[in-house]
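Input sequence (403 aa), recorded before submission:
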Amino acid sequence: MKISIQVQIKQHRRISTSRSPLFDNETETGEDVIDDQDTMVGNVTNLQVLPPYHYGPAEKGHLCFDAAFESGNLGRVSPVSDEEFDLFIRPDTCNARYRVWFYFSVSNMLKGQRVIFNIVNFSKTKSLFREGMTPVVKSASRPKWQRLPSKQCFYYRSPRKQGEYIFTFPFVFDVDELYYFAYCFPYTYTELQAYLDVLESQNLPYLRRELLGVSVQQRRLDLLTISHPANLADHVQQRVVFFTARVHPGETPASFICHGVIQFLVSQHSLAILLRKYIVFKIVPILNPDGVYLGNYRCSLMGYDLNRQWTDPSPWAHPTLHTTKSLLTSLDTSQNVDLDFYVDIHAHSTLMNAFMFGNTFDEGSRVEQQSVFPKLLSMNVEDFSMGNTCFNRDQIKSGTSRR
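Predicted structure, token format:
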């Protein structure tokens, strides 16, 4: 069973440019291409953008764009005028099909400078931008992420871009300092590692952190086990609930939900204590650490949508899935373990509220068993949608974790 959680994303120019060597992407082909110049290799790195027809050195007010940092994504910037800029999302590494997540910084502005940013090459036309979702922004002196006002954001078909959907928002830099913009609230691999380090340092008797495996780029695949120590003794029958999250890097709300689950289960809340007494919780917080680190939207370093590889994951191409599936299989076949529940946490780019996706079964007992949890959620969680909850066997979801 799977729960999906949704918050609620030819010109004359002269540009001084540098790019990050971390990425090597294919050229986008097919009907999603915005124009024949939509070829991007890596993120922009301290890209000083000069206005059209400007000659001479860069000046104060000539914006500097950068995305060469963890989870950053911005592939190209084209000035339309002195105040307006077309911004191009870098495709996922080794897979030019996906262009949704963006995360970049801007500096070298004048106090009070007004600009218009156009995100022009989304690979998906359906978006929660239609429903009022807006990007987030923070700055050096205001480090808390805030959403841009919905009345100042516009998602529309642009005649200037052959009818393609673009997202436009104006912005006023009220202070001369470093600003960050993102598709949604970022949650990085490093943030997770810092949080787990803090938890581990507390030496909680009911928390165990293990290195389950490593990614292609040798990043940690962490496994947390949370339960009363008596439940982990040899030959004790265990009832296990297994959580995974962030198989799709751009679905950052999944990490915030998983973070909240961990935070609650290790707390001294009476319900958390009761749950630890009877249940063994196993949690893999980030299934795709390379994709998260590199700023991809859906794919791994090698360009795979990992949530279509669960049927036969490769130990070299999909090592995090291979290791996780091996653990799940061993738990499911163990005589001392009842694997009661598996929850894979996602976020959705077009649907609001919380909801669940699951399978259909011929056995009536399994149908009834998996129907209980969404029913309980609908009775106790205001934002849970039974209308968006569905159970099916459609082939398009073949290879997903719930299959």
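Checked by second reader. Residues 1-38 have pLDDT under 50 and may be disordered.
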